[in-house]
Amino acid sequence: MRRDCDAASSVVIGFVILLMLVALGIGIWALISVPDMVKEAESTHAIELSNTFLDLKLSADKVRVNNFEGARFSMLMPGSSGMSGTTIGFANTTGSILSIYIGSNTVHDAQWKDIGRLSAQVGGTRGSTVIGYEGGGVFRSDNGNAVWLTPGLIEVYPQKIDGNSTIRVDMVMPVLSGNAAISSNWGAPVDVVYTGKKDRIVGPTNETLVISFSTSDDEQRNLWYSLFYEAETRFNAKIGTEIGTEWVGIGTVKASVEDTAARLTIEPGVGGPNDMKLVKVYIREATYDVSLVNRYEES
């Protein structure tokens, strides 16, 4: 009888030890493999969101360039991935002001407080990632470090206008209206309607012209500084390839950032009476109505 009890106890003990070994193996596998799998899933999800925002930008550019007033385009923002959900948000204003100054005076009708931002925020094991559309460009911010995936729509280049050597600035200012936010694990529909455009011209002027983006948000300010710096770099590269005498002394383009604002300062050169050095800005303000509700279901 005693032997039977000992035999039964040995079987139970062996089975328990086997279960412990299995649990230990699963625990080690989870400790080593699962975090990497979650990080990979989060990275893939961020790439999917980036691609969706790039598609949104391309659609917004297409209807603007062709002036398809009333055109509507929709897309589904990817939902959750890994251990995190996605919060899709839209803000009419981000507390920032984009202004154009000639000398020390603000140009009338060339100041925007309602640029708007559409963004998706993803929380995960590596912190917070924000991907969004603002100022005509797509950006990505990882734990407060933001970069442009595609820059905003501003271009500075030399051009002969009415016989004068001119620093020409082309600006497209997308203005987003609407107000909504949604958190989703399954994806969120984004519906956008192009409502029209408004064109205007600032200048020509032979005074210093400044495009200023002021905000209390350090990350957003640095993001716009990088946009201005890229415009400065492209302008200087263009001048470098146009060695002709017509561009000598045309002026300077300089990006800078301070405590409250990022700036692009454009200073025309000094020319003779037959060859004025000027600055001229062409602005296209494009307006979009953004909704996180599928308007096709409402109609």
From TrEMBL:
Domain of life: Archaea
Residues passing through the membrane, by range: 12-32
Keywords noted in UniProt: Membrane, Transmembrane, Transmembrane helix
Keyword Transmembrane: yes
Protein name: Type IV pilin
